[in-house]
SAM-dependent methyltransferase (Phaeodactylibacter luteus), 390 residues
Amino acid sequence: MDPKAQFLAQFRQSIADGHFIKLTLSKAGGEDKEFKNVYARLITLKGEPHLSFTLRYATRDITKNHPPQEAEAMLGLWLGQDFLHGVLFTRDTDITLQYNRKRKPRLFSAKASLHEAPAQNHDQAKQYLIAAEGSPYLQAMGIASSTGKIKADGQRKFRQINKYIEIFDTLLSQAKSLPNDPHIVDMGAGKGYLTFALYDHLVNNRRLRPVITGIELRENLVVFGNELAAKAGYESLSFRAQDIFDFRPERIDVLIALHACDIATDIAIAKGVQAGAEIIVVAPCCHKQVRKAMAPPEELQPVLRHGILLERQAELLTDGIRALVMEANGYETKVFEFISTEHTSKNLMIVGVKGKANEKAMAEIAQLKARFGISEHYLETLLRQHAKVD
């Protein structure tokens, strides 16, 4: 068995017997002069062992997670081509594969220099689908330090980002017809915390080929997002300075709108429904339209004469009818509480996955509107204008 094959066999065995600690590749020798090093550690993703590779480039780091068999194949491609020096650290031995100038390999063994593997708690991995290490966007956004550690004042936002990714990952599992190259539109992307994390997760954890477009009115945030995407090597992630009402994409597989105020949420949902999106995710805020269109009956006045109670009732009706309209158009919906990264208050999140239409939904909407004196819900109006709701 040649030295490279022995090295890979030792790697495979160290994973199997639980003795693996970490692995490093150095002495770059490939065509890509920007590709400097690779570091690998063992993590647990969804209850299964994975190797988390941090690929170090001159100006960015990229994290890729692979099951052991795929990880071994990646090492086989890199060793002797992109890197001429590899070290496998196990509980028993340090194993080094080294290539000379003629690219002839030699294998060396030495006494183990490390005895404890880094925590696999990606529970830390199970908890955190987005890793702190190797995520340059977290550093650029001030959440992580230059060494890849989450800052004290970034812990809350980091947890929120991962909670969002957990929610989205569940929706991916429920979607029946989502393609491997999903076209995703994030309407009102803001600074892009969740947009970048979603791209990272879909590419590096889910092994998909997403095309993600963030729509944002503020030009400075669009410039920031596009520059950061280029720096991170996120080739299919881009941002546009545009009003969501004017955005007319050819294809939407996933529609996201987490910071759209008032009727902007209705516009986003309507665009997702009209495009036949497999997944729609919105977190509405600033509910005004339905409240202005409400004339509650006399028997409700003892409660709704108080402005704050009328406002909260209008919010519940606004989002409840939104969910029913989505159901009428063939989406299975859930409404639950979500803490946004952009706002300190708790928002409701409405999610819809393509499924069976609720045949009773339109009658239920009519009953609610009559009961609370609602003359118009803007989402209905938008869809009716496009002949989606009769």
Q: What stands out?
A: Residues 45 and 126 are 6 Å apart (CA to CA). The two ends are 72 Å apart (CA to CA). The domain at 147-385 is CATH 3.40.50.150 (Rossmann fold). Confidence is low (pLDDT under 50) at residues 121-126.
